[in-house]
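Entry:
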Amino acid sequence: MHVLLIEDDTEAARFLVKGLRESGYTVEHAPDGREGLNRAAEGQFDLIVTDRMLPQLDGLAIIERLRERRIETPVLVLSALGSVDDRIRGLKAGGDDYLTKPFALAELLARIEALLRRRASRSEASRLKVEDLELDLIARRVTRGGREVELTARELKLLEFLMRRAGQVVTRTMLLEGVWDLHFDPQSNLIDVHISRLRQAIDRGTDHPLIHTVRGSGYVLRADS
């Protein structure tokens, strides 16, 4: 799931980006309202989390302009302004939820999950499926042939990346940029180790492996070898 965080406080942004990524989300950060609006207007995000008080353009103005453009991406507003009138104003501007600072990361994650579940039930599939392998995008739960598969947040992100491109060979560069947010090869066995662990978890106890190495090219998730 692709999340846009619009937050001008450097320390708060670092904390939130880390927490979201460790929970398996792909996160992009915009440090001000103008950049946040420009990125949000591209319509490529599953969810937007925005501070209310921002330089250049405040959070509610961002929401109003998105709704004027008929961009219906769910928006969670974060604000130190916590009165009933402030919350009502945020929701009337087009926000989908309003969380008052300070807050616990666990509550933020729960609200994000609820918004994504609501969106999925309205518009898009919340599950990815390849043969007997299933990934519940909202609950972040994986099963293979009915057997629950325990994965780390990074392994979940790697699996989602592969499942969204099932049948397509993905290169090391694609994996570094899409899963690790790296734009260079660290010259390590980072990818190999994670692929090996994922393969052991997914393909253990089955005669039909789904994760294959394409020598000289990368990896592919598909039913046949």
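The mean pLDDT is 89.
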